[in-house]
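Extended Data, panel c. Modelled sequence:
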Amino acid sequence: MSLKLWGGRFTKETDKLVNDFNASISFDKRMYAQDITGSIAHAAMLGKQGIIDKESSDKIVNELKKIKNEIDSGDLEITDEYEDIHSFVEATLISRIGDTGKKLHTGRSRNDQVAVDTRMYFREQCDILSGLLKDLQTVLLDMIKQHTSTYMPGFTHLQKAQPVTLAHHLSAYFEMFIRDCGRLSDCRERMNECPLGSGALAGTTYPLDRDFTASELGFRCPTGNSMDSVSDRDFLIEFLNDLSIISMHLSRFSEEICIWNSNEYGFIEIDDAYSTGSSIMPQKKNPDIAELVRGKTGRVYGALISLLTTMKGLPLAYNKDSQEDKEQAFDALDTVRDCIILFTGMLETMKFNKDRMADSAKKGFTNATDAADYLVKNGVPFRDAHGIIGRMVLYCIEKNIAIDDLSMDEFKSFSDVFNDDIYDAISLETCVNSRNTAGAPGIESMKAAIERYEHYLD
């Protein structure tokens, strides 16, 4: 039996190097379940439409189910002598039920077959990745609840700016991951159209019921144009774009973890299970997981750029170039999935040095804006208040003290407006909790955010 689904037009065997270069089974075999499921739906439709007899349709369906069960259990091995997963499944079917198996491909091309397999596979992966992001968000939410009064400096330009809480800082990433889940959901919706029945590019003369196969496979509807159906890879480009944005968010978070883990900051301690040491320096405890998550982002970006570059010059309809879509997409998918899982574990076991974070906020003059606001509220024009506090900060830097450490006489030397209530006005607690506009770090605002996050995760 030939291992190829084609060959009648050829008089010579394909060169072995060409076979190896052309083959995709080494990576598309992971779609065996989707390929078999799509073939079952196609065979059932052929029987329903009378394109093949019902007995043949049932026989094909039953044997395909057996083949899938055997692959699932490990009793049947997918071997690499076949060109692709489609060839393996159909050849196995024919070897078992003979000529009846040869009827399966009626009204179908590998072009629409691979298109439906790919959409089904990555549709499922959108759901899996969303679930992993929700797991990460669950860990984040637990940490947010624990740290609504853990004060730390907020930064702009990597300079200490204003005091916030750890809960508020982590909340920013929770929001990013909400958007990531939304993008995956949108992507899933757009890829949820069924190309099966489009044939090679121009449909078929057989009376296929494309609505039936679309429904059987859980698609919203059939695709609208047969040429676009077999040549479109927009859904994979969009998926890789979504992975790239997820990776970018994880990379930003990882960068902060690396900074916070440094001796100079000392905000966190990463659990031993998610750290490594040095082969020469015994004191080292390196944030390798955070660094690798950050580093692998470039790998994911590469997959997106690669597919965009592959697709930019392809005329309608299908071209073999399109086979280059899956290997990169599989790699990016595996990379992002592993990054989310490992990042979640690292985050869940991380310890925070609350005192160090609060002390950093105090010594970074993060309450300088509030000191200026104090003067404004007591009748000093803002521009004058800004100058007064600027000179005060310079004085504190020279003395190596925080604004909070100034005596009342020192406060008065800058402005007679200052009174004893300045100490409460510029405390970290007051600075943070007086900010309760929507999205701000104040305790009331954070309670509202936590309630919203709990509702989102339900």
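The domain at 359-457 is CATH 1.10.40.30 (Ribonucleotide Reductase Protein R1; domain 1). This feature is highlighted in the accompanying rendering.
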